[in-house]
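Rotation project, supervised by the postdoc (A.L.). Task for the rotation student: set up a whole-complex structure prediction and record inputs and outputs verbatim in this book. Inputs entered:
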Amino acid sequence: MEPLLSVEHVTLRFSGVLALADVSFQVPTGAFYAIIGPNGAGKTSLLNVLSGLYRPQQGHVRFDGRDLDGRSPQARTRLGLGRTFQNLEIFRGMTALENVKLGADLRFGYPALLPRARREQAARAWAEEVMDYLHLAPYRNVPAGRLPYGLQKRVEVARALAGRPKLLLLDEPMAGLALEEKQDLARYLLDARREWGVTLVWVEHDLRAVMELSDGVLVLSYGEVLYEGEPAGARENPRVVEAYLGAEA
Amino acid sequence: MFFELAKTLTDAYSRRFARAVRETYAADEAYASTPLGRAGLAFLLLALLAVPLLLPGYPVYVLTLVAIAAVGALGLNLLVGGAGQISLGQAAFLGVGAYAASHLAGPLAPLGILLGGAVAAAIGVVLGLPSLRIKGVYLAIATMAFQFLALWVFNNWEPVTGGIRGRNLPPAEVLGLELDRAERLWYLVLAFAVPLFFYGKRLLATRAGRAWFAVRDNDLSAQVAGVNLTLAKLSAFALSAFYAGIAGGLLANLYRSVTPEYFLFGISVQYLAMVIVGGAGTVLGAVLGAVFVMLIPELLNAVVGAFGPEYAAALAAWRNVAFGGLILLFLILEPLGLVGLWGRIRAYLRTWPLPY
Ligand SMILES: Nc1ncnc2c1ncn2[C@@H]1O[C@H](COP(=O)(O)OP(=O)(O)OP(=O)(O)O)[C@@H](O)[C@H]1O
Ligand SMILES: [Mg+2]
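Outputs recorded:
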């Protein structure tokens, strides 16, 4: 079976900086796939290539049986490629519910200038279901920008999930969260995978969480792939160990 | 510890509440879903219908002006408060609507007004194109340039606009009845304004509103969230211009004449003031802003009348400065405008005398 996502020989350069050097990997349907690496390794750049914000100089991205090359971010989202950001990109002036409904519009859309009461209600019901899942319902009418940080992150995840993506890209979803919040989020993500069949690709610094949750891992350093495969194998890989020790030293 | 408890409680409550609420989404999504709300709405509509019966001529004339301005301000609010795109060209669209309507007047006036809206919307799409590339101050300057270009056209395209002398219109006519006074035209204004208000309110509460707000808050992540940026921006520009075009057409039928001086740059500034003073991004804000901005000059005129006519010229000169200052004041002190102020007063009264 063809993998859901396949990245082939992607190279991305920013005037001098080699952000991604010939990166290739594949993510099968239903995976909980992790991308790790020291700061500046190119993890965010890789996600930006996948969601169409950066255009790589070389390489191809295939998703769900289609070539993504040249498609706009919006078109990719509509094909089922969801995304959350490292530094929190919720819509601060909209309420939590409006944020999630914006995601739901991907499923229940109608021409924007011709509102349809039925579909609007369907979008509402679905948005409430997602918010219920992530325990966001009590905050539905709070402007998202006024929520505490952890809840804002959750709203962003809820918004992305409400679009029922086939694949969800999460850029450091747990950064800055308290331990309990991290555990909650992990549970929500696992639930979403089981319940809605969402394949997950997440960037994470917390190695323990990665080892516990993920079934595949890509290790990047200075834009290069150090390791690709089972999480357990990463620990024994000398290049990975060196990169991490080097980063810590 | 306290927080934990609160969280457990709210979680449990929320699950039950969500279940209860789910049955009522339909009601929640509709307008005025409570009996009280419905009664209030019915009362408001009746009061609007009764205005010409209850008030003498001049106040009705002023209210007609306010209602027309509210339509134009609502349009601008969809663009500025909704999609976050600044525009200093609303008066130009008013003009486009007014001139277009002046060519289909008399018994055809309702059609002419619609034509004004349509022509303005088409031009609005064109003005929206630069917004796909530029933002903020640069966009403001581009719309300002459009405003001056439009004025030049109004002054010089004689066959269509009548040049400096402008154009005169016969009174609008509906079912054989001449709407030659504000007391009568009021109903035609309502016939356009009321549906446009419900439509605007609906748009802001549904998919279009969400797409616009998302673009306003963060246009890059809006795209990643699946919003079609081009469509969102152009539709906001088109609708904003459509509302202004309708307002312009109504204005032409109220003044029964159209000349370039009705559509000067200062009027565009006034419309922006209505949006910002009233409250960006809400329908109520547009109405409050229009009332406030249109009634201030009336008050000032009354004051000047008391002092003597020699102050009138000085006052006119300072008016735009005053509006500019007002915009700045609200932007700094109360970005949510009168709507926000009202919300805070209400919250204060609800909890009074306890501060929290
Ligand atoms: N838009 C850009 N313009 C220029 N250089 C960039 C740009 N985006 C990323 N880079 C560079 O590419 C490299 C990889 O950055 P990236 O943000 O992808 O790293 P990261 O792995 O996400 O790091 P972190 O763990 O800190 O989030 C860095 O050297 C960065 O400076
Ligand atoms: Mg990063």
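Student's summary: The longest helix of chain B spans residues 229-255.
Supervisor addendum: DSSP finds 16 helices and four strands in chain B.
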